[in-house]
Amino acid sequence: MSERALATSGAAADLLSLTKPRLSALVLATAAGGMWLSPGHLSVVRSLLTLIATAGIIGAANALNCFIERDTDRFMARTRTRPLPAGRMEPQVALWFGVGLSVVCLPALALAANLLTAALGFVAFASYVFVYTPLKARSWASVLVGAVPGALPPLMGWAAVSGAVEPGGLALFALMFVWQLPHSLAIALFRKEEYEAAGLKSLPIQRGEATSRAHILAYLTLLWPVALAPSFLGVAGRLYLVAAFALGAALFSLGAWGVAKRLGRPWARRLFLASLVYLSAIFLVLMVDGGAGRA
């Protein structure tokens, strides 16, 4: 491969990395879950276009987040190799890439789905870029704000099919919102030094690790019943109810163990990984049981 081809390939890979593909894939999967579970019908073509437009909005928000945090990213091990802090890309490229994606994908979402879905997408985009991102350097409460755009994609998927904000879609929103709180605090605990070096605020830094563990347990306690709501609202059936109860009990037990034993970063990292397994399992059973219930 020629040097020019290698350079082009590298630039494309760097642009893709701005969208945070792994995070975007997780969020997009929840949007697809909302579409699958929502009553009504959307053609295969419109469904694909809706998901592509949603992916573009998620990618745009992440690219602009990378642009805004390009200086603080240099101080964190998981972000210092990104194109901007590593010096492989000019900041203006990331800025216009993010702006361009949002300008194209928000109208595309309105056309592929409906105006309601596009409006929810705009709220997710704007709150992530203009509220959550700058707040991270000011207060640990950014975790609460950031949970809103992270929870909107399944509601967007639901609204794309149903054309309305309904209890079932709101249950998915609530599940994602509450799940993010212990998940994010676990990250803040085991990456405490990196947050401090980057000048970012987190609950462990501002209130201490004991308070952080207590918050984690409180959110896990709330997550347990919230995750059962889709079954009671008819979105899924008994299989999901049993699975959600068991998975909630397992995650709560891990959190309670950490609080009781006053455990530190190894436990926090284990909880972070367990929360990812929990979410994957919850949505898998939800889509299987919810899909079977509508068939």
CATH T-level topology of the largest domain: Tetracycline Repressor, domain 2
Radius of gyration: 20 Å
| Large-scale geometry | flat
Within CATH, the superfamily of the largest domain carries the name: UbiA prenyltransferase
- The helical percent reads over 70%
User: How confident overall, as mean pLDDT?
Assistant: 93
Number of domains: 2
Task: Report the strand count.
Answer: 0
Q: Which stretches are low in confidence, meaning pLDDT under 50 for 5 or more residues running?
A: none
Given this structure, which CATH class of the largest domain is correct? Answer: Mainly Alpha
Order of SSEs: HHHHHHHHHHHHH
**Amino-to-carboxy terminus distance:** 50 Å
Based on secondary structure, the structural category is mainly alpha
What is the CATH architecture term of the largest domain? Answer: Orthogonal Bundle
Q: Helix segment count?
A: 13
How much of the polypeptide forms β-strand, as a percent range?
Answer: under 5%
Biggest sheet character:
none
